[in-house]
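Protocol step 4 of 5: obtain the predicted structure for the target chain.
Materials: sequence only (see below). No template structures provided, no constraints applied. The aim of this step is simply to have a reference model before the mutagenesis design in step 5. Sequence pasted as it appears in the construct record:
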Amino acid sequence: MNKIEITEAKEEFLSMLRSTNREGVEYLIEELERLGFFEAPASANHHLNVAGGLMVHSINVAKASLAIFEAMKSLDPTLEKEVSKDSIIIAALLHDICKSDIYVRSVKKRKNEIGIWEDSEGYKVSYKNFPMGHGEKSVIIALYSGIELSDAEMLAIRWHMGAWGINQNSLEDCKSYDMARKLYPLVSIIQNGDSLAASILERKSSDLDNA
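Step 4 output (structure tokens):
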């Protein structure tokens, strides 16, 4: 992903975020700038592990989640009374802001196409800045940045990893996640949007080659 693509993606991200007209959104954007969100990768070694990848992933999750919402509305029209498009956009775009400051550029040894080891620029992960967890950290960053979140939005962000974000040894975690899904359809919409974005929209041919 080059600089021009990052610039275009940033314009799309900001346009989607501002379309919600949510109070405090400009303060949030300032905090995302400070944290390095717009230049961060989505992962160290997997999907969109390039500069700007986290922002593109967030846009993809928003688009996938909105598509899920539209499809589910055709099956259950009452869903529109429980979920708003603005909430989907907010929760999807902010679900992974916890990753803004955990990736550090590094040089790793990798085998090239002919099997020779060579230096390759990449990222390593460090949790020293604010080791609060994953979804929890995203919720806290959003709130202290000045934007207001509904209960549904906070829970959708907190539990967007689904079973992968649950301490299976914690009965409280398991019951809280299960109750959040029952109370708020937004939780399942964002969780599935995140999964589909990463596994379909962001897969590379090399992912299949290495499977």
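Step 4 remarks: The chain has a mean pLDDT of 90. The two ends are 23 Å apart (CA to CA).
Proceed to step 5.
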